[in-house]
Amino acid sequence: MTDEKQALVEKIIKDVHNVLSKTAELYAFDIVPVETNFRNKSPVMCIENCLGLESWCVKQVYLHSYTELMDKACFQTQKKCRQVLDSETLLRLLNVTLLINPDLSVLWNKRKEMVQELLLDTSSELKFTRLVLSRKPKCNDAFSHRRWILGTYLNNHQINYLESLINTELIVCDLTADKCPNNYHSWSHRLWFINKLKNIIKQNDMHALYIKEYNFSERWMSKHVSDFSCFHYRQFCIKNIYNLSNVSWKTFENSLDINFRKVLVCLLAKNFPKDRTIQASEQDLVSYSEENLMKFLLSYNNSCSCNVDSVSLCRKFELLCYELTLNSELLRFYKHHESMWYHRRFILHEIIEMMYDHFGLFRHNGVLVKKSCKYCKTTDLKQKQAKIIRSHGDCLYKSVLFQVIIKHEKKFIQESEEDKHAVRHEKYLKLIQGLNNLM
Amino acid sequence: MSYSTRNKFEIARFSGEEENHINKKLPKELLLRILSYLDVVSLCRCAQVSKLWNILALDGSNWQRIDLFDFQRDVEGSVIENISHRCGGFLRQLSLRGCESIADGSMKTLAQSCPNIEDLNLNKCKKVTDHTCQALGRRCSKLQRINLDSCPSVTDISLKALSDGCPLLTHVNVSWCQSISENGVEALARSCPKLKSFICRGCKNVNDRAVSCLATFCVDLEVLNVQGCDNLTDDSISKLGGAMRRLCVSGCTRLTDTSLCALATKCPDLVTLELAQCAQLTDAGFQALARSCRMLERMDLEECVLITDTTLVHLAMGCPRLEKLTLSHCELITDYGIKQLSMSPCAAEHLTVLGLDNCPLVTDGALEHLISCHNLQLIELYDCQMVTRNAIRKLRNHLPNIKVHAYFAPVTPPVAGGGARPRYCRCCNII
């Protein structure tokens, strides 16, 4: 009886292997809940490029393959194992065991060894991990195996199919993120992958990819409002957009159906401080050059003679203000979602940091400190630190942009009073960002 | 028994100092003789006993036949070099099956130091290339058996070198050496007339000319395995001679009934015939075959999709020695054919293994007929969806030792011990 049982299990393992090796476009695996089998029928199913295994045999198959691997694949160094599996049987067992239970790092490591010994093909490994992820989209071992494969693959090879490689990788991330909400592993894999590509593909392509990812994350974000992993990725995308070249920025602006400047001006116009007479109308602001706009908003002359890149600064503000309005809109639609409030914190933090940076200040232990100019490295040691900081700080706090932002936040917090996160947000701004006196 | 002269002096010196009785009572020649019966592991252990024993155990004469497969397979080249230096001319037989890190360098050393080797197994030594075979061809003229299974770098050059230098070759295995082609095989066939066994599974370039050469020049050829050589046609298979005992042409999809008829007339002593995936074969061919090849013991007819119950009728009548019959994926086979088979003379005594997986027309009735096959040990029924669990149980009642392979979940024995446990724990009982 035990012989027969073993034969059955081995036959099933062989069937699975046959499907795996014959069907190239296999994209999904799952265990089909069939508790009993009345008919003498194979529990291995292959329908429309999906692999299925009936649940009645899973326990036996797993037990057999797992013990076989542990006994014979030399995992215990203490026990000298006599029988050694040949590479094909080993692979067969590894495939089945990992499909059923992918959280076994030992087995993944064995696969890595096999890849290094050229017993396994990298592209087939990518396919296999994808199959595993189709069932367990949160399996970190599978993602890390994928990273390892891609890392060696991208470092060592001249890549011909880079484009398709990038596409499949992003698709895998999409699928896994879609299958399982708050899939941290998927998003961090995506982030790793984009970072990895930085050293490999040309800058132009990279910028195009940044734009694509920015747009993608916006769509995703508005559909998954409490997936902070996605928001984190969005923040990564925004930071990537900062670094776009002029040409890419143009294509970026064209690719969107919104005008950043208009959004920024709209935000400004709604929240202009009352006590000041503003000479500029909305149309004027829209038509201003970046330099003039920044002068108007920040009204600050740097003490040293360095040129500030007001174009990129202006772009960053535009980008962040758009993000802020987007976030406000989403918050109005979907109330009580903590992750969106956290994202808002990120946006405000970025804006405020950027202003500090522009004014040559930074926060150290909650106190503003003057720093040397990052371009010319001169420090005005003649004047007293405290005095400079006071004057610079005043300048900063009186600037139009700062006042507009503060006013906008105040309004928004009042507006969404019933949300307990709004109160927290206010506290965050007051205590963490140190705006207690200003709000 | 002789041992290397360079050690004689040392043996004399050490044996004088030894206190051990066995060394005093037995002459060195006898000790050496005793050691010669030991396997690799025991010899290595003996070599650690004393200096004398070390010399005796590692003497080349003990190492005429070495198989490292069960001992150690992650051997490096230096191990092989050591072995070849120690054994020298003594080495007759060496198996390095699965020693994947062995490369040409150490194999060259081996060829140089062990010219008398007769049987060399390099199965799965993936790094071995033509250089090894060239060295063997130059030095080892006594080589009779060589196994180069799964050495993908081996090409026609190897076969030429071997055929030039080793005229005594009888057994050659070059399976999965995909670059082997007609030229190499022809050279081998021409210069090694004693060839008895030639195995080239998965060598896609082996064609009709290659097999024709083997058939014409090697009249003693008994074993031919050309599994997966899908270029082969009836032309070459029809030329095979009367010495043929075991033939495997699985995967040669172009073969037709002509081959079977030719085999029937020319090779009446066939014992094993594997015809898997030869989908063009029909009942007519098997009728001719069954009439004359009465010694057939093993037949593999997997995926011969055209055959029907008629074939089984002919086999049942013509092949009284049939032991093992595989009919997987022969989708036209019905209970009637199985009934005929079970009534044949082979069924009662010889038939031990019967493969019926993926025969959708086979039902419970077939199993009832098979009850008369007393010797049946294994029956494969995977995916025969008309076969039920009850029928298998009945068959088991009649043939208690039979193994049935089917897709039914194994019956797990009821969990014992759950109800037998005392309701109170032991300490409560004591109190």
TrEMBL record, chain A:
<keyword id="KW-0677">Repeat</keyword>
<comment type="similarity">
    <text>Belongs to the protein prenyltransferase subunit alpha family.</text>
</comment>
<dbReference type="Pfam" id="PF01239">
    <property type="entry name" value="PPTA"/>
</dbReference>
<protein>
    <recommendedName>
        <fullName>Protein prenyltransferase alpha subunit repeat-containing protein 1</fullName>
    </recommendedName>
</protein>
<keyword id="KW-0808">Transferase</keyword>
<dbReference type="InterPro" id="IPR002088">
    <property type="entry name" value="Prenyl_trans_a"/>
</dbReference>
<keyword id="KW-0637">Prenyltransferase</keyword>
<dbReference type="GO" id="GO:0008318">
    <property type="term" value="F:protein prenyltransferase activity"/>
</dbReference>
<dbReference type="GO" id="GO:0005737">
    <property type="term" value="C:cytoplasm"/>
</dbReference>
UniProtKB/TrEMBL annotation, chain B:
<dbReference type="GO" id="GO:0016020">
    <property type="term" value="C:membrane"/>
</dbReference>
<dbReference type="InterPro" id="IPR006553">
    <property type="entry name" value="Leu-rich_rpt_Cys-con_subtyp"/>
</dbReference>
<dbReference type="InterPro" id="IPR032675">
    <property type="entry name" value="LRR_dom_sf"/>
</dbReference>
<dbReference type="Pfam" id="PF25372">
    <property type="entry name" value="DUF7885"/>
</dbReference>
<keyword id="KW-0106">Calcium</keyword>
<dbReference type="Pfam" id="PF12937">
    <property type="entry name" value="F-box-like"/>
</dbReference>
<feature type="domain" description="F-box">
    <location>
        <begin position="20"/>
        <end position="66"/>
    </location>
</feature>
<dbReference type="GO" id="GO:0016567">
    <property type="term" value="P:protein ubiquitination"/>
</dbReference>
<keyword id="KW-0112">Calmodulin-binding</keyword>
<keyword id="KW-0449">Lipoprotein</keyword>
<dbReference type="GO" id="GO:0031347">
    <property type="term" value="P:regulation of defense response"/>
</dbReference>
<keyword id="KW-0636">Prenylation</keyword>
<keyword id="KW-0677">Repeat</keyword>
<keyword id="KW-0832">Ubl conjugation</keyword>
<dbReference type="InterPro" id="IPR001810">
    <property type="entry name" value="F-box_dom"/>
</dbReference>
<keyword id="KW-1017">Isopeptide bond</keyword>
<dbReference type="GO" id="GO:1990756">
    <property type="term" value="F:ubiquitin-like ligase-substrate adaptor activity"/>
</dbReference>
<keyword id="KW-0472">Membrane</keyword>
<dbReference type="GO" id="GO:0005737">
    <property type="term" value="C:cytoplasm"/>
</dbReference>
<keyword id="KW-0833">Ubl conjugation pathway</keyword>
<comment type="pathway">
    <text>Protein modification; protein ubiquitination.</text>
</comment>
<keyword id="KW-0597">Phosphoprotein</keyword>
